[in-house]
Design goal:
- There is one protein chain.
- This protein is mainly α.
- The protein contains one helix and no strands.
- The protein starts with a helix and ends with a helix.
């Protein structure tokens, strides 16, 4: 083979090699971005769950307070009724 053809083959192999490396680099960058998006989504979901849990706790506390107030009013009403009967 002529020297020119061999040099062309080497050049082509070099270009193919650079092309493959570039393709791999693009693929790696794509995977990194994909992972970052998934992580961001997961963190957002976890934050949302924390907020929901906080709302649940606040709701339960409010419910307990309402129940306590109701029991106090009920007791006061019974006490008033009992005192009225004792008079």
């Amino acid at each position: 083979m002529s020297k020119f053809v061999e040099e062309m083959k080497k050049d082509i192999q070099g270009m193919e090699s650079r092309h493959e490396q570039h393709k791999e680099l693009r693929h790696e960058k794509h995977e990194e971005k994909k992972l970052a998006r998934e992580l961001k989504h997961q963190m957002k979901h976890e934050e949302h769950e924390k907020v929901k849990q906080g709302h649940r706790v606040a709701h339960e506390e409010k419910k307990e307070l309402r129940h306590e107030r109701h029991e106090e009013k009920k007791f006061a009403k019974e006490l008033k009724h009992q005192m009225k009967h004792e008079e």
